[in-house]
Amino acid sequence: MKTTRIQHESLLIITLAFILLSLLTPCQALEWINPQPFGVGIADVWGTGSDDIYFAGLEMIGHWDGSRYDIMETGEQFPYTYWRCIYGISSDDIMAVGGCGDVLHWNGETWVDESIPGCNNTFYSVWGAETGEYFVVSDHGLVWRYKDGIWHVNDINYYVWFYDIWGLAADDVYIAGDANFGEESIYHWDGTQWNPVSDTEGWSILSLCGFSSDDIWAVGESGQIYHWDGQSWTFYDPGSPLHGLYASWGVSSDDIFFGGWFGLLRHFDGNDWSKTYIEGELTGRSIYGLWGIDDSYILATGDAGLLYKYDGTDWQNLQTGPMDHFRGIWNSTDDEIFAVGEGGVIVKWSSTEWEYLDSGVTDDLNDIWGQSNIAYAVGDNGTILHWNGDVWDRMSSGTTEDLCCVRGVDTGPVFAVGANDTVLRFRGAEWTAMPTGSGIDLNGVWASGEDDVYAVGDKIDDMGSIFHWDGNAWSRIASETRAVLCDIYGFAPDDIFALGNGPTILHFDGQEWTELSLGYFPAGPMNRIGGTSSDNIYAAGDYLLISFNGTDWTLESSSVAVMDMCLGHDDQVFFTGYSGLIMSDRKFPNPCRETGVSISMPANEFRPGDTCSCQVTVCNRAGTEIIEHPLFVILDVYGSLYFAPGFTESPDHYLAQYPSYPIGATKVNVIDAFTWPEGAGTAEGIFWYAALTDPAVTGIFSEWDTWEFSWSE
Fold first, then answer.
1. Rounded CA separation 654/673 (Å)
2. What is the mean pLDDT of the chain?
3. CA–CA separation, 499 vs 484, rounded Å?
4. Which of 454, 576, 568, 461 is nearest to 510 (CA)?
5. DSSP H or E stretch at residue 611
6. Has residue 593 got a pLDDT over 50?
């Protein structure tokens, strides 16, 4: 029987649809929105080529396949590991190390746990020989060798912290570190034993890079640079300033880069030294990883997702999105995300891109809150800004004190608190002062109504402070905690949570305040608390984000400094913080950062009177126009597949309407906005699938997407 093209397309697309359905898995607890592709520190980078690159960093291992970045699945046993180094022998033989004895081995299909039982040493670097033997270095002078699936340990020198390793073969390996008490810093393995390399007493070496046994470079935390010629070390003075150097990579000794503190990059061409700051002198992020293919393809990685590529002439920033230090976040009813931060910065996300808005101020903005499409932002020196849906205007606050928190009551007053007992109330005409009389700094405010307002702040008589406004006067409430209270948030007058440093969390049930038992979490300053209900709460601080499900508190992340959070539509929670951090607790339509498609609807559940629509965004980051790639959008109603735009059960696509896609984002309206009708009944588990295929319709082209939704009366 001859198969026609239509029959071929039908079989392929139906197959693809069910493949997509089978691949549906729960989202990660936290999803990155900004910056892209990564927002956490990237300690190391290694690859087999320009389309197969791996990144190791805080709580993640990432991968670039030539068209898109992914965070790889590493297993539930490694949710919080700081992966410090990654190295491979081939594309199906890669090792990542970090944390306390944590080791993962990539076999080409999955990451396998190869951690050393009972090992509590911190692993800093890994290198592998073509024979399949891996070497790992750690603190307290230990070197671990992995051969034929078995770990062997060598105790070199207890007083040396080994930070890096480089080798030519399994019997020609060098390790280096930070030596105490005048011990040797660099050692060599000859296949039988480890021997110190002469004249390295007391050095602090963080990175090694070599080209032969008599051509090795070593750099350290004081900016020193040494070269080994096989007989002795030569000190090179690259010129001031001597900032710490953490990474090195080169094609040869007359074309080598060294990277480090504040984004400093030094280059040696065999005769002369040059330097550059990749992001600005003394203001940039530090570089921790360097790796390349040749002199026209070199990557630098570092703090807060730093990712740059060198093309032989210039360093290009591969990280996209705002990188400002944000302190407040808000989600409008138009599904726009606003973030405010240091220097008066305000950014807005709408559909496909970030936009900087003119705040008219340079003071740091510390918080934002709004209702519908109206918002208020507060900051230092008494700054209060008002968003009317189109522009930001400055309001008269009547104070020059720093304001740190603003919250209001729907259709009611808005409250702001700050330094030196500042409490302000806005009822629609002007901001008026209503101090508690305590004289302390106030850090958070929450209200269920105009006569039920709470404020928290610094300690009085060594006890955390809680104040309540009953509509007539403030009263102080005994908190029974010695922690400074940073924030307060509630869901009802008898369901309120207060957050303090430690972390410390208090709960009010309408009768009394009780300190909750959290279990053990790393101690540190806290910033904000919030959520959707008393059994879905987040508490955030400097490099600590924990959640509560109504029963247990769980560590969500220790890699990001979260300054604020807000409740979005459909009970979605957004978080923001330093270095452009914006993330969510569930799937969010990502900005156009990688080639592929994404689906968006106003919500995941619809009821009569709700506005419903469906839009697909085709993102082209391929560097050239995408031509004659059909866009398939499929509606799956309990296994019955309907193909847009005609919504027939026979294959249909958008090639006639969109024969090509330019670089950037192209929006395709699948269903125009309409009001969900009454009488539609109830349904759940309805799916959209969207994907580009190749011109011959033989496979999916780049990233595809799915969206699940439901409706009810």
1. 19
2. 90
3. 9
4. 454
5. strand 611-620
6. yes
Place of tokens 């944390």: 99
Question: Which pLDDT tens digit goes with each residue over 28-40?
Answer: 457 888 998 898 9
Q: By the 8 A CB rule, do 110 and 97 touch?
A: no
**Cβ partners under 8 Å of residue 550, min gap 6:** 534, 535, 536
- Tell me: pLDDT of 511 over 70: yes
Residues in the chain: 713
Domains and CATH numbers, the chain: 5-11+590-711 (2.60.40.10), 40-120 (2.40.128), 327-584 (2.130.10.10)
User: Is it the case that residue 15 has pLDDT exceeding 50?
Assistant: no
| b/e sequence 516-537, b meaning 16+ C-beta within 10 Å | eeeeebeeeebbbbbbbebebb
Q: What are phi and psi of 276, to 5 degrees?
A: -150, 155
- Going from the C-alpha of 44 to that of each of 102, 305, 361, 394, 630, the distances in angstroms are 16, 11, 38, 45, 38
The whole-angstrom separation of Cα 256 and Cα 261 is 17
Query: Are 318 and 278 in contact, with CB atoms under 8 Å apart?
Result: no
CA dihedral 677, 568, 499, 417 (to 10 degrees): -110
Q: Look-up: residue for tokens 């693809």?
A: 16
List pLDDT tens digits, range 53-99: 999 999 899 999 988 888 898 887 787 789 999 999 999 999 999 98
Distance between CA atoms of residues 601 and 393, nearest Å:
31
DSSP state of 281: T
Q: How far is CA 149 from the centre of its chain?
A: 34
Output the CA–CA distances (angstroms, integers) from residue 538 to 529, 551, 573, in the order listed. Answer: 6, 13, 9
Buried b / exposed e along 653-692 (16+ C-beta atoms within 10 A): bbbeebeebeeebbebebbeeeebeeeeeeeeeebbbbbb
